[in-house]
Amino acid sequence: MKIENSTFLITGGTMGIGYATAKLLIENGGKVAITGRDKTRTETAAKELGAFPITADVANPDDVKRTYQEFLQEFGKLDCLINNAGLGLFKKIDECTLEDFEYIYRINVFGAALMAGEAAKLFKQQNSGNIINIASTAGTKGFEGGSIYASSKFALRGMTQCWQAELRKHNVRVILINPSEVTTAFNVATREEKPEVPNKLRGEEIAVAIKGAIEMDDRGFIPELTVWATNPF
């Protein structure tokens, strides 16, 4: 797809990977809306980027429907959904509670599915579209303390494969992006960005990967793309 004049909806776009992706797409002529749960943070980030702000929680079905209403009222059509909103929680299995799993799954799994479901309705009608799911290398291999987070990303990976099977016949490309460790505000209680580390990934590297994947001619797509830091040691 061509980025210029195409429309993008990015969840969790106020910082980190979402913010970097919005910035790169806008710099290349894309029309972008970002979502965030905090109204002030969302509107501030949107003003900095030149994006359209939507204050919404992807875990809330009513917010999801309102997100699409506001987006379509502003842009008229959707070309690409980027499911970026996500949270992390890391505990040993004997420390995990049902509430812990529900808290993370509501954002990382259920929220992504609700957002994709609404996008799929639009894309099937217009016989085109793109869904980018931001997962993690944690969704390809488990690790100590990762029962909650890794399983949520394994779930997103599995759903991505299901959506690919369902939507290819409608000319819809569903792409999974697996970043390894990225120095962002992810899993930081204050939601402040972490300082850049020279040998670690930034949101910018993931944004470049997303841009490269979606710029491929619509006749083809990359089902899954993993991004590693070259030498994080």
From TrEMBL:
Its EC number is 1.-.-.-. One of its GO terms (molecular function) is oxidoreductase activity. Keywords: Oxidoreductase. InterPro entries: NAD(P)-bd_dom_sf, Sc_DH/Rdtase_CS, SDR_fam, SDR_oxidoreductase. The keyword Oxidoreductase applies. The keyword Protein biosynthesis does not apply. Pfam families: adh_short. Belongs to the short-chain dehydrogenases/reductases (SDR) family. This is SDR family oxidoreductase.
